[in-house]
Amino acid sequence: MSGTISSRAGAAETETIPLSPESTLLSHSDAGPRYLFYRYVCGDPEDIPSVSQAPLERLEQSYGCVVWRPRGWRILPRGLSGARLRLRFMFRWALDRLHIFAGPGFGAILIYDGHRIVHYSAFTPRYWRFPFIANGDFQIGDTWTDAAYRGLGLASFGLLKTVALLAKPRRQLWYVVESINEPSIRVAEKAHFVLAAQGTFVQPWGLKLARAYVIRQTCDDSLRG
After folding, report:
1. Helix, strand, or coil here: 92?
2. What is the pLDDT of residue 110?
3. Distance between CA 193 and CA 185 in Å, rounded?
């Protein structure tokens, strides 16, 4: 089963991708918001979008950037504040410890101003919330930027750093964003992610923890222009 959509804002199209039974799952609670599924297909290393261009190069000089992955019982990165953010990292750590992820490699790109985390871009392999992801591929999210640092390009910087870290020929990286989230859409498109599908999320039995992002329609080769 598959469907087609046209791209927004002139974004290039990608090939039609078949919908798996998991990604066409119907639910008693098919929630309302529409989501856009952006995809980046990794090529050769020299084709990876670079952070060397200004103004991103200035960000690299002004902020610290590290790759974080948990080690043993070290659950939280240094400098992470706020109960909600800590719960997000603890949740992903628990999924990893319970072997829920389809493969290894989850983590985050952390951007620091001094000792303070001002942005992170997390990434995970497939699990129930992102059932459309193939083995060996990743989804990038959630991402977060400190309110005092928004509008400075940190989200683009973090996404490009994540792509560079995860890049492997033919690997697919996914970035799911709500259709009304224009800033995040611009970030994805600036990083050469392409609109691949649209969908929603399902919430089985009304349980927020069990919700999953589901592809409803995919792009059509005939709409590439």
Report:
1. helix
2. 96
3. 9
Asked, for residue 219, whether it belongs to a domain, the answer is yes
DSSP class of 214: E
Kindly state whether residue 59 falls inside one of the protein's structural domains: yes
Residues 211, 30: Cα–Cα separation, whole Å? 9
- Concatenating the DSSP letter of every residue in 106-162 gives -EEEEEEETTEEEEEEEEE---TTSTTPPTT-EEEEEEEE-GGGTTSSHHHHHHHHH
Burial code (b: 16+ CB inside 10 Å, e: under 16) for 138-163 equals bbbbebbbbeebeebbbbbbbbbbbb
> 213: which strand partners?
201
Start-to-end C-alpha separation, the chain: 24
Query: Is the separation of the CB atoms in 198 and 179 below 8 Å?
Result: yes
- What's the total number of domains in the chain? 1
Q: What is the mean pLDDT of residues 129-140?
A: 95
Q: What is the CATH number of the domain that holds 171?
A: 3.40.630
Position 221 scores a pLDDT of: 44
Do residues 39 and 193 make contact, with C-beta atoms less than 8 angstroms apart?
yes
* Domain assignment of residue 68, given as a range: 22-223
Helix%, strand%, coil% for the chain, nearest 5: 30, 30, 45
